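REVIEWER CHECKLIST
Item 1: Sequence provided? yes
Item 2: Single chain? yes
Item 3: Sequence as submitted:
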Amino acid sequence: MQIIHSSVNRVFSGALLSIMVFYPWNAKSELPPGKKIDWKEPAPVLFSPQIVSTEDDEFGPTFTPDGTTIYFTKRNASTISSNVMVICYSTLKNGNWTTPQIAPFSGKYKDFNPSISPDGTTLFFISDRKSPTKTKNDTDIWMVKKSGSGWTDPVNLGAPVNSAGWELGCSVANDGTIYFSSTGKTGNLDLYRSRILNGKYQEPENLGDSVNSEFAETDPFIAPDQSYLLFSSQGRPDAICGKGASADYARSDLYISFRKDGKWTRAKNLGAVVNSPADESGPTVSKDGSTLYFTSERNFIELPMKVKLTYSYLEQHLHGTANGLGDIYEFPMTELLKNLQ
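Item 4: Structure as written out by the authors:
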């Protein structure tokens, strides 16, 4: 299977250690003396710097409906041994996010891309853990149910949603319809949906060529009323990054498709106000629909540097956020919808 966009790279490969060139990450970043950026549009803002977003690799956020708990994935870097991905959470207390903890159902396997149902009763996630129905070392969709102040033991969603291929992201609408990414039907990562009838998931439906393409589509977020779909795709001709910066592989961008008259509109790139020459992935939207959260690997480097680097500046930024590993950002969703519909 080919190496594809950021969250999938994290599953199939170790850290990419080659030097890559990205644009400055946003107007809030620290800049060398004398360098200024005059933004004419709002820029993505780093979410909870040094607590949730750190010098480590974080991706795939999701929030409880009240917005007071975030679940996300943290991954270790490794090129010589298997890596681990764990689902962590942080809660908002007195206006501050608490030090993250590993979720009680995670910590032993590759668990990633959590997604909480609109009513907050179910958390779905992707994992390579074993189950009685699994015969291959792929990844499936699992779920835990709210139980008091905690969660039940994880349960594999099973067929027909999970397949003999790889499932790599999911999101659930108000009526229980699950949207997910899978290689099971075609070998290519496409987006599907499965409706619930009498408590059982039905045969998945491919979302069609207005959404899917010859490239990889994954990380879906479905609006609770199914009015729009956000997702990430790698390698499309309209990508902000194209072939990337200095390394010859395609990065992923975020896209949106609207549901109109029962059909999906042609997917649109969210544009350079959100996307960058680095990987963007893992979109999710707050319960009130006002804020987009997503993952980006953008960093502080541009070549040639307009101000010559000093060693202290380089060390500070290599060991801080926006260093090329995944961070979580936020952006006004209402602004995007106004410009894209």
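Item 5: Key structural point noted by reviewer: DSSP finds three helices and 25 strands in the chain.
Item 6: Recommendation: ____
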